[in-house]
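Query structure, 566 tokens:
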């Protein structure tokens, strides 16, 4: 009996010691995560929520700051956030559930289910939609071009009508990757039409209820009341302001959830309770282009390396909401971070948390392969040979290289420039950009090609040009009314304060600055690359407008009787 008591005594001491050790480790993790979120831990500021999954369980979750600044409601792990584009993986998963049931095929033509999608002469498959390789123009860019504000009420029907009016694609399906929200709105509609349920109803019955994601829903009604939701904010020189979101469309966005619930979703990838391993493997696999190349895009997700580890991730940004879910499958680890503040870098916050919980697995900075260069001395005359303005055709943007204080500067625009220092006769390193970035110059007969290379990847090539300088008299020739059948909207191009201005009844004026002959750049994100077209008589007949996710949208010039007489 005495020996038994002694054994029990030591067993209790051992157990308490283990418990204390685990508790201390937990406290250490919490204090380190708290330090990351110090600037959010204030009820007078918008906040953030975080959850961590490791080895099949939620090991950490916490909220910081305010979910509603008007009522001082704190963020908790149970606070519901709009998580924007993180929604997309649920949309793909829903399509693959239906495919697993034999109700559709991932390689079906979208027009089989949504015949309103125009026949562009090319087959657009559900797989193309799910991998951003469809060639369709992006719905948000199109709506903005058409004069919509992104805080307008935007419904599924609005987007479908917009798609039905399109006459051209950005590119042939499967040829390129360009991020496209439109594809996921269409996928959600396919789910609805095939299942006979709304997308919100389908995902609730097939995904959220089985996974016990009790605080999760697709928000398809902008007037619906959702208790315990966070509202979103941005800041200007007057302080915090409401960032209004009135979306009533789903698939590309509009998932409402909590970090607790999203953790249950992350766990399903490691041990499927909904779906099966074949669906998980399909979602996680890299999509391929027609030429067989990959581009880090999976289906509704992206794959990349983070400090030597494989990561599958997606972020989201709508209004003032910011979100991120990163999964590290080999480490059985996932982290989700939500915020209701537009300036929040949820990806950066999430990866700092990964640094804490995966510190024994990550490649340390000292082990990183970032190169260190020996700088060379070039005279100001040698440096000046690279000065000029450079145009990137693929991205439709210009960059300026100029010499100041004996050093070359790489300028992206007013107040946004980086130093580049020579590491060879025509090769430079860009300083303080956080990545291994080189700028190379290749001098040709007529111009100079500038190649920006990030981490020894494929070069981004821009060609030098001399910006054209039109007189006001010459600018007058570009004025007129230009109408888009695809958007059912028009812009008036006028001269104002000696500059060419694009005006629209619902938008602020857009200043158009000349770049090359018949080519201008606009100062709005959705109206950034404007190229004038001419007819056989050399008269201006229209403009083609591009904005990254929309390429070459045609606006025809509207001629009056007076114009025709002249």
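Result returned for the query:
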């Amino acid at each position: 009996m005495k020996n038994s008591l002694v054994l029990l005594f030591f067993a209790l001491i051992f157990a308490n010691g283990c418990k204390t050790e685990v508790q201390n480790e937990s406290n250490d993790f919490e204090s380190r995560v708290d330090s990351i979120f110090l600037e959010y831990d204030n009820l007078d500021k918008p906040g953030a929520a975080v959850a961590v999954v490791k080895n099949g369980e939620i090991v950490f979750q916490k909220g910081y700051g305010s979910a509603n600044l008007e009522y001082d409601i704190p963020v908790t792990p149970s606070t519901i956030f709009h998580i924007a584009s993180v929604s997309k993986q649920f949309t793909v998963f829903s399509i693959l559930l239906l495919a697993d049931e034999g109700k559709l095929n991932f390689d079906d033509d979208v027009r089989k289910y949504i015949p309103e999608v125009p026949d562009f002469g090319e087959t657009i498959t559900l797989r193309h939609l799910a991998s951003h390789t469809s060639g369709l123009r992006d719905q948000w860019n199109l709506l903005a071009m058409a004069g919509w504000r992104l805080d307008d009420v935007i419904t599924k029907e609005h987007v479908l009508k917009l798609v039905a009016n399109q006459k051209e694609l950005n590119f042939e399906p499967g040829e390129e990757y360009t991020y496209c929200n439109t594809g996921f709105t269409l996928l959600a509609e396919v789910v609805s039409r095939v299942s006979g349920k709304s997308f919100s109803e389908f995902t609730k019955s097939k995904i959220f209820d089985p996974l016990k994601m009790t605080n999760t829903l697709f928000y398809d009604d902008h007037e619906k009341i959702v208790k315990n939701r966070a509202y979103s904010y941005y800041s200007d020189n007057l302080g915090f302001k409401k960032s209004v979101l009135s979306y009533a469309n789903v698939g590309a966005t509009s998932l409402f959830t909590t970090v607790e619930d999203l953790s249950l979703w992350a766990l399903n990838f490691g041990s499927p309770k909904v779906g099966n391993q074949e669906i998980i493997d399909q979602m996680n696999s890299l999509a391929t282009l027609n030429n067989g190349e990959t581009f880090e895009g999976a289906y509704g997700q992206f794959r990349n390396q983070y400090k030597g580890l494989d990561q599958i991730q997606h972020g989201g940004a709508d209004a003032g909401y910011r979100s991120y879910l990163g999964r590290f499958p080999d480490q059985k680890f996932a982290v989700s971070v939500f915020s209701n503040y537009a300036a929040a870098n949820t990806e950066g916050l999430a990866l700092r948390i990964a640094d804490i919980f995966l510190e024994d697995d990550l490649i340390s900075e000292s082990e990183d392969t970032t190169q260190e260069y020996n700088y060379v001395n070039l005279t100001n005359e040698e440096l000046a040979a690279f000065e000029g303005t450079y145009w990137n055709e693929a991205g439709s943007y210009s960059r300026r290289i100029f010499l100041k204080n004996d050093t070359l500067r790489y300028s992206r625009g007013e107040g946004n420039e980086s130093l580049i220092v020579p590491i060879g006769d025509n090769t430079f390193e860009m300083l303080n950009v956080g990545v291994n970035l080189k700028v190379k110059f290749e001098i040709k007969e007529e111009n100079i090609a500038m190649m920006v290379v990030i981490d020894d990847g494929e070069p981004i090539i821009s060609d030098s040009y001399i910006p054209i300088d039109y007189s006001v008299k010459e600018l007058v020739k570009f004025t007129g009314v230009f109408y888009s059948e695809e958007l059912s909207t028009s812009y008036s191009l006028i001269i104002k304060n000696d500059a060419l201005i694009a005006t629209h009844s619902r938008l602020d004026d857009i200043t158009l600055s000349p770049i090359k002959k018949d080519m201008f750049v606009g100062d709005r994100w959705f109206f950034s690359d404007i190229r004038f077209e001419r007819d056989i008589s050399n008269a201006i007949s229209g403009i083609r407008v591009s904005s990254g996710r929309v390429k070459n949208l045609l606006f025809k010039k509207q001629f009056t009787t007076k114009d025709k007489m002249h």
